[in-house]
Known about the structure:
The structure is a homotetramer.
Chain A: H1 2-7, E1 22-27, H2 31-43, E2 47-53, H3 57-65, E3 71-72, H4 76-81, E4 87-90, H5 97-106, E5 111-113, H6 121-138, E6 143-145, H7 153-163, E7 170-178, H8 188-207, E8 211-217, E9 233-239, E10 244-250, E11 258-265, E12 268-272, E13 279-282, E14 289-293, H9 298-301, H10 303-318, H11 327-346, E15 350-351
Amino acid sequence: MTTAETRAGALPELADVPARDLRVAVLGVGMMGADHVSRIYSRISGAQVVAVSDAFAEKAEQVAAEVPGCRVIDDPLAAITDDDVDAVLIATPGRFHEEQVLACIEHGKPVLCEKPLTMDAASSLGIVRAEDAYTARTGRRLVTVGFMRRFDPEYAELKALIDAGGLGEPLLVHCAHRNAAVPPHFTSEMMINDSVVHEVDVTRFLLDEEIAAVTVLRPRPTRHAVTGQSDPLLVLFETTGGRMVDVECFVSTGVGYEVRTEVVGEDGSALIGLDSGLVRTSGDPSGAARSSGIAPDFRQRFGRAYDIELQRWVDAARRGEVDGPGAWDGYAAQAVCAAGVEALRSGRRTEVGMEAR
Amino acid sequence: MTTAETRAGALPELADVPARDLRVAVLGVGMMGADHVSRIYSRISGAQVVAVSDAFAEKAEQVAAEVPGCRVIDDPLAAITDDDVDAVLIATPGRFHEEQVLACIEHGKPVLCEKPLTMDAASSLGIVRAEDAYTARTGRRLVTVGFMRRFDPEYAELKALIDAGGLGEPLLVHCAHRNAAVPPHFTSEMMINDSVVHEVDVTRFLLDEEIAAVTVLRPRPTRHAVTGQSDPLLVLFETTGGRMVDVECFVSTGVGYEVRTEVVGEDGSALIGLDSGLVRTSGDPSGAARSSGIAPDFRQRFGRAYDIELQRWVDAARRGEVDGPGAWDGYAAQAVCAAGVEALRSGRRTEVGMEAR
Amino acid sequence: MTTAETRAGALPELADVPARDLRVAVLGVGMMGADHVSRIYSRISGAQVVAVSDAFAEKAEQVAAEVPGCRVIDDPLAAITDDDVDAVLIATPGRFHEEQVLACIEHGKPVLCEKPLTMDAASSLGIVRAEDAYTARTGRRLVTVGFMRRFDPEYAELKALIDAGGLGEPLLVHCAHRNAAVPPHFTSEMMINDSVVHEVDVTRFLLDEEIAAVTVLRPRPTRHAVTGQSDPLLVLFETTGGRMVDVECFVSTGVGYEVRTEVVGEDGSALIGLDSGLVRTSGDPSGAARSSGIAPDFRQRFGRAYDIELQRWVDAARRGEVDGPGAWDGYAAQAVCAAGVEALRSGRRTEVGMEAR
Amino acid sequence: MTTAETRAGALPELADVPARDLRVAVLGVGMMGADHVSRIYSRISGAQVVAVSDAFAEKAEQVAAEVPGCRVIDDPLAAITDDDVDAVLIATPGRFHEEQVLACIEHGKPVLCEKPLTMDAASSLGIVRAEDAYTARTGRRLVTVGFMRRFDPEYAELKALIDAGGLGEPLLVHCAHRNAAVPPHFTSEMMINDSVVHEVDVTRFLLDEEIAAVTVLRPRPTRHAVTGQSDPLLVLFETTGGRMVDVECFVSTGVGYEVRTEVVGEDGSALIGLDSGLVRTSGDPSGAARSSGIAPDFRQRFGRAYDIELQRWVDAARRGEVDGPGAWDGYAAQAVCAAGVEALRSGRRTEVGMEAR
């Protein structure tokens, strides 16, 4: 995973970015929106949440109170047009997306919209056309849709492997998308719109072509299915290039959250989602093997650890605290290494000399 | 790994942190230091690099030029005392650490010092004592040492498992620390001081006790060893509680970077470092199993993807660009899902209706 | 795998079997048939090949010459009726099976017939009816069809897990069946009849119900496909109980031989074929895990090693040879253990005292 | 594992073996001995147990009663010299081995002696010398010691990989040997003599050189250890060529039976014992990977299944039964394949036409 991240999902280094932080308004601070506020505040460099908006004013107040410099703007459209807002993150219910995204385009504000873009294809196409018009005028694009799997290090590594020709031409994709449980109102249609939609985007992302046809099969339902609903579903995609994708969508497994994707190509296959990094099948019959990569050096293996270390050091320093190994740990390591070097020289067991703490 | 991160290595959420960014001086901008500058600039929330210092002025100028608002301060001690510097990150060669860390303590500046803390145990103990005196006066601590493995999600998960009693009392630890290659001046002593030092800290971190004795054995050296040096080494630690640790340190494997740690306890064992998350051995003979965790839901599985998504969105927005799936991707997904819902209802293969792009 | 073998695929122990060896005629000694002759001769207890028959007389002579006591009978029907033949193994081309199996039934000889039983369903049904009539008269059955996967330890373990209710009710099965390459005459129809036929039997074996409908989809073919043929295929089965099975059949992967089966049930799933034993997904969201079993003791872990050890000892003894660790190895082990016990007592490194060989 | 078996641990095919079965006497029919009787009777080709002997006459009678043609000979030395006995398998307590093996040598009978060969190095050396004298006279060897791991397919694959130079020169070996539990009389010395003795032989087998020195360390004992005993132990071997081996021996893990061996060489490493076949680490830093082999074709993947299939067919036929898929299964497969071929041609879902059973 570390390897994947390095090879394919790396963050930009010292990019050409203006010094001032991006001032973000977050619309909708339910579970996803509140998570994003927290994320921007505590983990994202170069951005601040300056405004939040939510139909439940109390929830908005509560979230804003935890972020220095963040205020509540009741009307989401007012938040979009506010002069102190550079960019907008939309996490409101899907039925509000169309109006809000269009407002962002109208006012030239970059927008990250959680899926779905809108509630149907026609209105989504309207947004495409509106942004195209804006781009024609300005040369800039504004809309990003929250298909986050494209940023997952494993998916990014799989995409990079395909693009590098490592699997030859992809022919088939096998997907599984499993949730432990869903709320009692979750219908089979929602399985398509809320769950399988991710495999729709993954298919388009990995194969770089459109989906031309869909078939949905209903196997015998689990006894844990929402009453009257078909769960699991077996969904088939055919792409414009004749490739096929099968998707098991199963939202009442009772177990955990499993998302698996295997791409089968002319020259090998690759599987992600077994929580063990990308597993590649390759070779010829005399040396066929299943393999997973090893990081080339410590920057790849421990790059994530360095990020977390520094973030925690910064956070602690801002609080006037220390959060990590301290001077005593540095001293103890020196004392043990000194004994180690002595042991190396003498070939003998060497006791560590250490002061009492 | 995602699971690990969530369970054990999570970043603080909406912590009680002052609004102003932490202003950091980075001393030493060789490979590690420059990496840290880049990291703070592009991935760390709430901090800015405001000053860099390096014995090679040209290198310092070059790094500073890439970070808005960052200046060069030639004298590292001047950087430490500068009023615009809140905290210091030391990545200079080890022989300068003692003086620089002591200066940080004297001026009450939080400091993250790359290992080693100093060049020998006595001077490290001097720092411990100096910080203790400062803490006695102020109630605050200042020194963090850069043992980054403690922040690695796998190590954090292993530590959490031990602390939760999941392995019973730990008895033995098996470690392997392998590099593909080292520079021609790398001696066996450096294997102890620069490589095995990480296993020293890991041992202390995981077992929560000190190392009492060290033995270093020299197996037959590889033909790829630095001339005259013993590589691999087999190092044994005994802790004050009688636990034992064996460490294979092998720095010329020619392969990749492998760091593996297995803790064997009274009630099971756990292994990290096979690039497949933590693998736990548990159960009784009638149902003994090797297992690895599955994320409970999408926030754990894709938490990292969300972080990367937002960071890239922010970075792109600041550059006036879009970097991710766009409106067309949102439209295409809607069009396919509409066909999917129709296919679900009809039970038939359904073609996707989509406008030409 | 050892665990699997023990739990589910174990051979009978000290069964109630007559003392005299079973005298077997093998019809057809091409690749499969010759393999079976060799197998019976060198690895199977309680049986001898007493006759072989093949359309190529020379091939039959050659095989018979290597097995003491084995003769050639040109006419396969004469071999079936021969008084010295207790049982018949049919490995002739499929078009001869019907007549040969019916002859076995007529003469009351147990028969193991390689798949296909016959060339079409009607003639296979004829054999069912003929055997039923024989069974009605005698109470005995005679026909076994060579679907060998049922005897594979992994499949046997998977079946046992399902039967024990470990997955709850099975709902979906995902299969992949991949060959590196096939001969130039191999058609897509042969992919169904010769390859997918194994998934047909696996489905019926694992789910204990019949297949009610089949769909065959043709994804974009690989450039390595036999000219004009569709490869890979995506085959769907629906069972009489509404369960569904998807099968990727891909016979020109260029890689190796991969056969994978995953059963998804109401209460968990299990996957075989990643060459790492059965991997089970189970638990609830707070502790969901992927796990594989560990042998309870050495008899399971090394049962196969004991079998091979004894077979090689017997074979060597019959040749007047020794094939395995000898007295010197026993001596060396004693000498090292003596030093080990001394080292245990003294706590010191102890040199091994050993005579020169 | 299948791959391993094929590549390295294969049984001899059509070897030059006399037609008559080897007549074996088994001395000692406790757990191991009775297992071996059963194994020879039900799974080994070309051998019969004709005599058993045990200090507990009742146990001997009971075992003999289950094997046609097997009689009890009270005096083990009489069994060795019996004219109807071709070869001897010794599974008596170790203190009887010396006399029994010497008797076998005296009478020119091939003998498979369970470890230990004798109770001390001196008496084992006596056997070496006695067999050497016999060999000098006859050109034949007689003694095999029951170090069965050499026959385990994974160990055989590891040995083959080393011998083929796949790891370069081996430098270090890491071993773990874990039992769930041992009887209450099991001492730390027995851990050396009965458990670690296998790693002694594995070391000598894999590295092809002798062990020159042993060190035994005693980590903090588990609370589950036999009272007063040190468990686990950490045992170190140095070989005559300067290679080193560390062995964790832990006999009260409470979990399962785990035997793991990793060989670290100049050009890569290989690990067995994670129940997922041999895992090899190789490549250079730009493409370092952990990999496991895939069978080249079905004979490797399902070779074991064919063996079990035939053994069960033979056993069932001798009992007048059928034990495996029958004619109906052959018919059902034909009916489904016919529908499959129709579905392939039509591109449509095709119902399977099948008679009622």
